[in-house]
Amino acid sequence: MQYRNLARTGISVSQFALGGGVFGALAGQEEGSRIIDEALDAGINMIDTSNRYGDGESERIIGEAIKGRREKVILATKFGAEPDDERNQSGVSRRWVRQAVEQSLLRLQTDYIDLYQLHRPFGDVAFEEILGVLSDLVQEGKVHYIGTSNHQAWQLSESQAESERRRLQRFVSEQSPYSILNRSIEMDIVEVARRHDFALLTYSPLAGGLLTGKYASGSVAESGSRAALLKGAAGRMLDPELPENAQKFAIIEKLKHVADQAGMPLAHMAVAFARTHPAVTSIIVGPRTSEQLRQYINGADLTLSPDLLDAIDEIVPPGSRMDGQNPAWTPEWLDTSRRRP
User: Fold this and answer.
1) Domains in the chain: how many in total?
2) FRET label pair with 12: which of 71, 200, 239, 318, CA 20 to 30 Å apart?
């Protein structure tokens, strides 16, 4: 397992981080603990989750699984994407963030969170307000560092400027999707990260399952696959039977041919591609089973030659996006009232 610096924090994190998105939803305590045990044994030292995953159950499963070895784990969680069923019980107000962090600490059975991340942007709340309460939490020792997730490049630059202007804690990381089929961060976020010196934690290296190599256009998804489990609206972009996905699966077939020529599974090539970018600090993987975790780890040492990377570029140009996935959030400026007079 290779390790990289989390920006200039002095923290060293593994090239893979274990994502907790399936815990509490597709994996319970027993399977979750087994996956976490194997991940730690393999050298993975960072676990990432959110208070939203499994309605908090993911945090609880992780907290239970790492009891007695908390100091060995770089623990990251997120806030700000909670359902807004009750007024002021979600979002990024100072009032709610203080409640959210206490609830996360309780579920995780810890006194501190290594990296506390804003799950999505909030255009209607000033960065001054968000950074103010997060800075207080750092001063109190409840949080060591702060980060963002699913932000755009201009928002990241704005937050860095606000931190400097107000002398507040700065975000040290951004969590964004990155795969062969979604290379959009190459257009601007990668350069912003370089200029402001923050870490990039990327997720979905298999593009939600598209790059597993399991699916072929026009065929029926095999039983137990993610496409079969999410059949319908939630899994529309994975469905190989839909004519609307034909072009996307044609691209995947070309990538599979490249991987076959290189003598490696498509999934291994996809993960190695995400890991190869020098700006990527750690790749968040979310295996549903121990077997899937081992598949990630088995491809950890693969390197892609310049010729192989060139072949990928020919199929999916740098900076482009072809995965068809819905964005993690919808910007408020895309609302009808902001687009029409």
Assistant:
1) 1
2) 318
Average pLDDT, the chain: 90
Q: How far apart are CA 16 and CA 44, in angstroms?
A: 6
Tell me the residue range of the domain where 148 lies: 3-209+266-305
In a domain, 15, yes or no: yes
The model's pLDDT over 80-101, given as tens digits with 9 standing for 90+, comes to 988 877 787 788 999 999 999 9
Is residue 325 situated within a structural domain?
no
Q: Residue 200 falls within a domain, yes or no?
A: yes
Distances from the Cα of 18 to the Cα of 187, 290, 299, angstroms: 26, 12, 15
pLDDT value for 257: 96
Q: What CATH number did the domain enclosing 85 receive?
A: 3.20.20.100
Distance separating alpha carbons of residues 38 and 27, to the nearest angstrom: 15
The reply to whether 320 falls in a domain is no
The pTM for the full model equals 0.91
**Mean pLDDT, rounded, for 21-32:** 91
Of 8 and 86, more confident: 8
